[in-house]
Write a structure and sequence with these properties.
It is built from 1 helix and 10 strands. By secondary structure, it is mainly beta. It has one domain: Lipocalin. Strands 1, 2, 3, 4, 5, 6, 7, 8, 9 and 10 form a 10-stranded antiparallel sheet that branches. The two termini are 19 Å apart.
């Protein structure tokens, strides 16, 4: 599942350069690595299986994205569907849409040359109220 994060900042020209850099880093083909849930007292990691890692998240320069999913059923790796939509960075924040749904402002977003983390902060994720609770998907660049 595609989850994006917000990159915070101001509106100076230096920040605009950062947005362009984040945009250029985001473009590419990514392979799912793991999904992580974080609470104050607990961190749970679900590593993607070899089959799930067959899926790809593709972020294009034209502002569109596509993610394909694969899951293993009865020891056979099978195609399990596709999601697509648009993405943009506005006021230093990553905003995505998925076909058929509205815009989502991503609250957790980190991208480097080789790693992409996208997720959301969610105070209701844990058994107790936790303002720092969050979850994210981590991808590694393949192209």
């Amino acid at each position: 599942m595609l989850i994006f994060l917000v990159a915070a900042g101001c509106s100076s020209s230096d920040d605009n350069d950062d947005v362009k850099a984040n945009s250029s880093l985001l473009v590419g083909e990514w392979k799912p690595l793991k999904f992580v849930y974080v609470c104050s007292e607990l961190e749970e990691v679900e590593n993607s299986t070899a089959c799930e890692q067959t899926g790809r998240l593709t972020m294009r320069t034209n502002g569109t994205w596509t993610e394909t999913y694969y899951y293993e059923y009865d020891d056979v790796c099978e195609y399990d569907g596709e999601s697509s939509g648009t993405w943009k960075i506005v006021n230093d924040k990553l905003i995505i849409t998925e076909s058929g749904f509205g815009e989502i402002e991503i609250s957790l977003f980190e991208v480097t040359e080789s790693t992409l983390k996208v997720g959301q902060y969610d105070s209701e994720l844990c058994d107790v109220a936790d303002d720092n609770a969050h979850y994210y998907g981590e991808y590694i660049r393949v192209k």
